[in-house]
C-alpha cells in the first residue's frame, strides 16, 4: 500500500459540515421521491437544514452545506450538470445571497419564518431568472410567476415555522437567538 504524501487535517468544523450536509443530502434524496403536481415545485425541506445551520453556525457554514447538498444530491440523483442541477444551483446561490444580506436586518423583525420566506423567494427567483435566460422565453415564464410565488410563500412559511419550532425545542442545543422574531 502506498501512503499518500498529502495529508489534510480534518477539523471539528469539517466533521460538523459533513454531518449537516449528509442530513441535507438525505432529505434532498427523499424529497426527490415525492411526486409534484407542478414540475419544479417542491417543498424544499433540505432548506430547513440550511436555515438551521445559518442561524446556529453562520453564513459560511450554511454556504458549504448548501453547496454540498446541491452537488452531492445531483450526483446521487444522476442529474449532475443537467438543467435541473443548474436550476438548483442558481436557486441555492441566490437564496444564500439573500440570506447573506438579510442577516444585516434587525433580528427582532427577521426571525426564522421571515428569513425562510425571503430565502424561498430568492431560490425561486434564481431558478426563474436562469430558466428565463436559458430555457424558456420570458413571456412563457410570466404566467408561471404567480404559481411559483405562491409556492415560495407557502413552503417558505412552513419551513420557517419548522425551523422556529426546532430552535425553540429544549433539546435543540440552546435557546433561539436573542430578539429573534417569528
Give your account of this protein's structure.
By secondary structure, the protein is mainly α. The chain contains seven helices and no strands. It has helices spanning 12-32, 46-57, 59-77, 83-102, 112-135, 138-142, 145-168. Helix 4 runs antiparallel to helix 5 (112-135) and helix 5 (112-135) packs antiparallel against helix 7. It starts with 11 loop residues before the first helix and ends in a 14-residue tail after the last helix.
Residue windows where pLDDT falls under 50 for at least 5 positions: 174-182
CATH topology: Arp2/3 complex 21 kDa subunit ARPC3
Biggest beta-sheet profile: none
CATH class: Mainly Alpha
How many beta-strand runs? 0
Domains, number: 1
Strand and helix map with partners:
Layout: H1 12-32, H2 46-57, H3 59-77, H4 83-102, H5 112-135, H6 138-142, H7 145-168
Helix pairs in contact: 1-2, 1-3, 2-3, 2-7, 3-4, 4-5, 5-7
Amino acid at each position: 500500500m502506498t501512503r499518500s504524501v498529502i495529508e489534510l487535517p480534518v477539523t471539528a468544523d469539517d466533521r460538523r459540515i459533513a454531518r449537516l450536509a449528509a442530513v441535507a443530502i438525505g432529505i434532498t434524496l427523499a424529497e426527490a421521491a415525492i411526486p409534484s403536481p407542478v414540475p419544479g415545485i417542491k417543498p424544499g425541506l433540505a432548506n430547513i437544514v440550511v436555515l438551521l445551520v445559518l442561524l446556529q453556525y453562520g453564513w459560511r457554514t450554511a454556504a458549504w452545506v448548501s453547496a454540498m447538498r446541491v452537488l452531492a444530491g445531483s450526483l446521487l440523483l444522476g442529474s449532475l450538470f443537467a438543467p435541473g442541477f443548474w436550476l438548483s444551483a442558481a436557486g441555492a446561490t441566490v437564496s444564500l445571497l439573500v440570506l447573506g444580506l438579510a442577516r444585516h436586518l434587525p433580528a427582532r423583525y427577521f426571525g426564522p419564518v421571515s428569513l425562510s420566506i425571503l430565502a424561498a423567494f430568492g431560490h425561486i427567483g434564481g431558478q426563474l431568472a436562469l430558466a428565463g435566460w436559458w430555457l424558456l422565453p420570458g413571456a412563457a415564464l410570466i404566467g408561471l410567476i404567480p404559481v411559483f410565488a405562491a409556492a415560495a410563500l407557502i413552503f417558505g412559511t412552513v419551513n420557517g415555522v419548522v425551523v422556529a419550532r426546532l430552535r425553540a425545542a429544549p433539546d435543540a442545543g440552546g435557546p433561539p437567538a436573542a430578539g429573534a422574531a417569528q
